[in-house]
Design goal:
- The structure holds two protein chains of two kinds.
- By secondary structure, chain A is mostly beta strands.
- Chain A contains three helices and five strands, in the order αβααββββ.
- A five-stranded antiparallel sheet of chain A has the order 1-3-4-5-2.
- In chain A, a hairpin with a 5-residue loop joins β4 and β5.
- The longest helix of chain A is centred in the N-terminal third of the chain and has 10 residues.
- The C terminus of chain A is likely disordered.
- By secondary structure, chain B is α+β, with helices and mostly antiparallel strands.
- Helices cover 22% and strands 35% of the residues of chain B.
- In chain B, a hairpin with a 2-residue loop joins β4 and β5.
- Classes of the chains: A mainly beta, B alpha+beta.
- Chains A and B meet through α2 and β2 of A and α1, α3 and β3 of B.
Chain lengths: 170, 147
């Protein structure tokens, strides 16, 4: 179970927090990410291929913005800016949606803010509880123009074999 | 281009000509490996342990580490961006249904569900689905494309 009650989680709804600032979209990282998703399209690592495809500079793969949610970019520790108290053993990514105003490209400097838009719980047949949290993130560039909006749902489930929902990692 | 681990890919019909109900591009990603999970963790900065720390993951009740849902979404996104360019995708949504395990082969298929001529261009709505070698769906979703 999350470490906070549902009502405590619900009190966080509509709170907005800055998640990450000074996100520099870097050429090497774009190429590394493309390789990691087994996408060898030269547009992601070759300027002239990008130009031939109609881009001013190298674009990032569609799901690249995923990386902005982790580690060095973050203002807070952990990929969720709100203290949901979810147990890492039992937290999974339920759904992810991206809406683009324009592609993210190498050279962009972005800032991300996040809003917790919903929190709710569901009982499963085995008696365990699933807690859902929906987060909406907006990424703006150095001109303060919205580049993309990301909406994700994360789900925390109790471990039905544990009495207290399992140990927290670290 | 030959890439180890990528097998069949069907580039799909011309996006300007494709009709509602027709299949779009498809893609098969063979021999998913723990190394894929590690490469993706490094590239994305996502160090959730369920994807690379086997003792931790078994302790949580799973048979082994499993793939990041967004890694599989990355494969699906590649099928679409190879088809219409990364600038052609205005919206992309995915949900994660089943885990992907080391050794799995994932097949991604797409279907055009709507086609509307708009001022901004030809708008295609596409649904996609990825399943493993046992025909179990692992991720599924939809996208809005402007050609």
């Amino acid at each position: 179970m999350p470490y906070h009650s549902l009502s405590k989680l619900e009190s966080l709804i509509d709170e907005t927090a800055t998640v990450a600032t000074d996100i520099h979209v870097e050429r090497g990282k774009v190429a590394e990410f493309a390789h990691a998703i087994r996408d060898e399209n030269p547009v992601y690592h070759n300027e002239s291929a990008a130009s031939d495809a109609g881009f001013e500079t190298i674009p990032a793969p569609l799901t690249f913005s995923r990386i902005f949610m982790f580690d060095r970019h973050l203002v807070h520790e952990g990929s969720v800016p709100f203290d949901l108290g979810f147990d890492e053993h039992y937290t999974v990514h339920g759904e992810q949606e991206y809406v683009y105003e324009r592609p993210v490209v190498v050279g962009d400097t972005l800032e991300a803010t996040a809003t917790l838009t919903d929190v709710y719980q569901r009982e499963r047949d085995d008696g365990s509880t699933m807690t859902f949290a929906k987060l909406e993130m907006e990424f703006c560039d150095e001109n303060d123009d919205l580049v993309l909006t990301s909406m994700k749902t994360i789900i925390e489930t109790t471990d039905p074999t544990a009495e207290d929902g399992g140990e927290r990692d670290d | 281009m030959e890439v180890k681990g990528m097998t069949d890919s069907n580039d799909g019909p011309d996006p300007r000509e494709v009709q509602v109900g027709q299949a779009g591009p498809s893609l098969t990603v063979a021999d998913i490996d723990r190394k894929d999970f590690v490469k993706y963790a490094g590239a994305s900065g996502d160090f959730v342990r369920l994807h690379y720390d086997e003792p931790f993951t078994k302790d949580a009740g799973h048979p082994s580490v499993f793939g990041q849902g967004m890694l599989i979404a990355g494969f699906a996104s590649k099928a679409l961006t190879d088809w219409v360019g990364v600038d052609g995708i205005q919206r992309f949504r995915t949900r994660f249904t089943s885990q992907v395990w080391p050794g799995d082969t994932i097949s991604i298929s797409t279907t055009v569900t709507d086609r509307i001529e708009q001022d901004e261009g030809l708008h295609l709505a596409v649904e996609f689905e990825a399943h493993n070698q046992d025909e179990e769906t692992v991720i599924a979703g939809d996208a809005d494309i402007y050609v």
